[in-house]
Design goal:
CATH topology of the largest domain: Helix Hairpins
Radius of gyration: 36 Å
Strand content: under 5%
Order of helices and strands: HHHHHHHHH
Helix content: over 70%
Number of helices: 9
Number of domains: 2
CATH class of the largest domain: Mainly Alpha
Number of strands: 0
Length: 253
């Protein structure tokens, strides 16, 4: 059973200082590296997410206590199941041995008579097998190339299948891990992705366009001006935004 302590590479009774040191080392190890491939960086990112979740649990006293209690309960249940299954297997094995003992004795007696009569035949068969094994199989260069290509193709197919299975396993593991954390009362913060940044920019641009169009409509512009003049909070916010925009424009000039 892999625990969050195993992920952080610390003992279960480790102090917060030891956990902090190990966590920082692991973050440095699995951080984004331009020298690695996209698939490797993606796998490292998944590991970092798991490390972050584990780190936040063990650094919180209440969540760590609940996790330790749940872990101890699971270990106790698995131990009880293991003891029960081992005892059942031992009893079944003893019963099978008791029933098979008389049959084995009769079989040994019959086999001893059979082997005494067939020793010569077995020697002849072994000599024939040795002769067949000693025959060398000679392939042409074209056949050797075909065999090599077939082996490479089979290896590539198995490698692709293994990568797909590993990816599916990681996805399933992450989903189970998230569900388990939800049961503990932990809410994971979703990372800021390019898709989310894109959606935020679209919303901001849409708001700016709506404000621009509304400003060029006289009735709407008069309402906005009245709000600006009569509402102190709105006036303050607009003035702050105007100062911020002017400072940015001054930097790019």
């Amino acid at each position: 059973m892999v625990t969050i302590y195993d992920l952080l590479e610390v003992k279960e009774n480790a102090s917060k200082e030891e956990i902090e040191d190990s966590y920082q080392k692991l973050v440095q190890e699995y951080q984004l590296n331009p020298n690695l491939s996209e698939q490797e960086n993606k796998e490292n990112e998944m590991i970092l997410n798991k490390l972050k979740i584990a780190y936040e649990i063990v650094m919180n006293d209440e969540k760590r206590k609940r996790y330790d209690n749940d872990l101890a309960q699971k270990r106790a249940e698995s131990l009880i199941q293991g003891v029960a299954s081992s005892s059942e297997e031992a009893s079944l094995k003893e019963q099978k041995e008791e029933t098979k003992a008389p049959e084995m004795n009769r079989k040994i007696k019959d086999d001893s008579q059979f082997y005494d009569n067939d020793d010569d035949d077995d020697e002849d068969e072994e000599e024939n097998d040795d002769d067949e094994n000693n025959e060398e199989v000679i392939l042409t260069k074209e056949e050797q190339e075909e065999v090599r290509k077939a082996a490479q193709k089979e290896f590539a197919q198995k490698l692709k299948k293994a990568q797909k299975v590993e990816e599916e396993y990681n996805q399933a593991y992450n989903q189970v891990y998230k569900d388990y954390l939800k049961q503990l009362g932990y809410k994971q913060k979703e990372p800021l992705t390019l898709k989310k940044i894109k959606n935020i920019l679209i919303v901001l641009i849409s708001i700016i366009l709506v404000c621009f169009i509304a400003w060029h409509i006289p009735p709407v512009r008069n309402i906005l001006l009245d709000l600006y003049r009569n509402n102190f909070i709105i006036k303050s916010l607009v003035d702050i935004v105007a100062i911020f925009v002017k400072s940015i424009m001054g930097i790019f000039k």
